């Protein structure tokens, strides 16, 4: 039952908060570029992993709004809706995700899940009584998200590499036991080679440039959100932590704050990092430099938010309807293979 159709590229962006500049350039833009330029060679699946949204506590009265915000952000970032080679869907509207997860749950060791770094980190941070079983086994849900669609390419950040490796393990384990059930996605190294430069991108937190910018950051002081007031965002740039070396250099080891701002300036102006470096290298006025970055971020957000305001919810609804029907067909076919294999059908 190997499919002869186009290789599938799949990605989901968790709808637990407004997306950040990091999510935009590191997660969203690469897949949107693929959707714009490569959809005749690849099937592109972009989904809102709404079931993943509350593995950690959220305000549930906000979830619908969050899901729709994310959908609009995808479109504002350029996702083409009039393209059959692109599927846009909400995970919970395809029940096979939950159903396959249960099957795979029963072939996964608790030790295997306990060793997941993200689980260990969150447990250490908030204690195991506050870490849900959902967070414990979300890598299995993630494996289902990927395997149901026979996906080959899944762009992953560093934080997700381990979960992709698990997806490969469980797929191989099931294939060994039951015959060719699943397409095994490419290994992390090959993913990086396929997606190229964007994969290594890590925009840092402005207040603490030793850690990455995260949408779930508690204070949000060092985070630029896509929907936030551009003026307010510019203020965050002006207050960004730097160093006292009084010389602009791209050196993420010794000048992480300045290096991060160079990165942000390049991304938001569309220039290369090298161009920015040759423009600013060795200059001593951090004030002027920050002003330039703040101006660029303000302009970027203003432009992006103008696009966001143009997005039609009706067009999204129409796309969801056709994509979710198609996604259910594909996912159900895979689920049925698994159900037959384990003797449920
Ligand atoms: P959370 O705090 O909820 O984990 P996050 O900001 O880390 O949020 P994810 O949902 O984990 O976001 O990841 C969404 C996508 O954005 C992934 O492709 C991830 O690699 C990418 N991404 C996340 N943070 C950054 C960043 N700081 N720089 C570049 N890309 C990023
Ligand atoms: Mg993350």
Essential attributes:
mainly alpha, globular, binds adenosine-5'-triphosphate, Tyrosyl-Transfer RNA Synthetase, binds magnesium ion, Rossmann fold, 6% strand
Task: Describe the overall structure.
It contains 13 helices and four strands. The chain has 345 residues and is mainly alpha-helical. The protein has two domains: 8-196 and 313-342, Rossmann fold, CATH 3.40.50; 201-308, Orthogonal Bundle (Tyrosyl-Transfer RNA Synthetase), CATH 1.10.240. It has a four-stranded parallel sheet. Strand 1 (8-12), helix 1 and strand 2 (43-48) form a beta-alpha-beta unit. The two termini are 17 Å apart. The structure holds adenosine-5'-triphosphate and magnesium ion (MG). Adenosine-5'-triphosphate (ATP) binds next to helix 1. Adenosine-5'-triphosphate (ATP) is lined by residues 13-14, 16, 20, 22-23, 26-27, 155, 157, 159, 201-203, 212-216.
SSE layout and pairing:
Elements: E1 8-12, H1 21-37, E2 43-48, H2 63-76, E3 86-90, H3 96-105, H4 110-114, H5 117-126, H6 133-147, E4 151-153, H7 161-178, H8 188-195, H9 230-238, H10 256-269, H11 273-280, H12 286-310, H13 313-342
Parallel strand pairs: 1-2, 1-4, 2-3
The structure holds adenosine-5'-triphosphate (ATP) and magnesium ion (MG).
The site of adenosine-5'-triphosphate has 19 residues, from helix 1.
């Amino acid at each position: 039952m190997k499919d002869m159709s186009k290789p599938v590229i799949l990605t989901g962006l968790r709808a637990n908060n407004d997306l950040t500049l990091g999510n935009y350039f590191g997660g969203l833009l690469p897949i949107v570029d693929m959707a714009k330029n490569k959809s005749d060679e690849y099937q592109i699946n972009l989904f809102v992993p709404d079931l993943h949204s509350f593995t950690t506590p959220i305000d549930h009265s906000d979830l619908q709004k969050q899901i729709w915000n994310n959908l609009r952000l995808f479109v504002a970032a350029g996702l083409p809706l009039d393209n059959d080679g692109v599927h846009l869907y909400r995970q919970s509207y395809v029940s096979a995700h939950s159903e396959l997860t249960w099957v795979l749950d029963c072939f996964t060791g608790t030790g295997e899940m306990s060793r997941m770094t993200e689980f260990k980190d969150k447990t250490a941070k908030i204690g195991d009584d506050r870490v849900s079983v959902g967070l414990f086994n979300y890598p299995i849900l993630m494996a289902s998200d990927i395997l149901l669609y026979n996906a080959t390419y899944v762009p992953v950040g560093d934080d997700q590499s381990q979960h992709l490796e698990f997806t490969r393990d469980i797929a191989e384990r099931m294939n060994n036991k039951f015959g060719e059930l699943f397409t095994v996605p490419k290994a992390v190294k090959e993913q990086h080679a396929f997606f190229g430069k964007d994969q290594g991108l890590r925009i840092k937190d402005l207040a603490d440039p030793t850690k990455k910018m995260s949408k779930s950051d508690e204070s949000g002081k060092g985070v630029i959100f896509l929907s936030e007031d551009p003026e307010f965002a510019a203020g965050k740039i002006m207050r960004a932590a730097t160093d006292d070396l009084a010389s602009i250099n791209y050196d993420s080891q010794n000048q992480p704050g300045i290096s991060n701002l160079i990165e942000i300036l390049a991304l938001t102006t569309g220039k290369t990092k090298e161009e920015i470096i040759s423009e600013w290298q060795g200059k001593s006025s951090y004030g002027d430099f920050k002003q330039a970055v703040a101006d660029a971020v303000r302009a970027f957000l203003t432009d992006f938010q103008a696009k966001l305001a143009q997005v039609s919810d009706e067009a999204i609804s129409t796309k969801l309807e056709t994509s979710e029907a198609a996604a259910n067909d594909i996912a159900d076919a895979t689920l049925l293979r698994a159900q037959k294999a384990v003797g449920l059908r």
